[in-house]
Design goal:
alpha+beta; two-stranded antiparallel ribbon; 3 helices; three-stranded antiparallel β-sheet; His-Me finger endonuclease fold; 24% strand
Length: 108
């Protein structure tokens, strides 16, 4: 998948920058990581922060069945981060993207 610039907080990846310029402009620790690993670490943390519960319906969603949803979509300037992402069940995630085919299973 390639390398991406990430923000590290307390030893954990918390944010994937859109580009090198954004990474350089940020404060804090910035490193390059494999994209798949960075997304996986953020997904794990989003699940932990939500304690496995869907943000929208509050149903428990096991890790293997859940979706990480960006509240501000990347196409609208959002980013993959623990601050912009929430844990969601398939049904609620589908409601957030009625115009798209969700690609369940593309996470690490």
């Amino acid at each position: 998948m390639g390398l991406v610039w990430v923000q590290i907080e307390d030893g954990n990846i918390t944010r994937i920058f859109r580009n090198r310029k954004a990474a350089i402009a940020s404060e804090g620790v910035v490193e390059k990581h494999e994209k798949a690993d960075a997304v996986s670490q953020i997904r794990n943390r989003v699940f932990e922060l939500a304690e496995g519960f869907c943000k929208y319906c509050n149903k428990y969603v096991p890790f293997c069945m859940g979706h990480m949803h960006e509240e501000k979509h990347r196409g609208e300037g959002g980013e993959v981060s623990i601050y912009n992402s929430v844990w969601s069940c398939w049904e609620c995630h589908r409601k957030e993207h009625p115009e798209k085919t969700l690609r369940f299973g593309e996470h690490a």
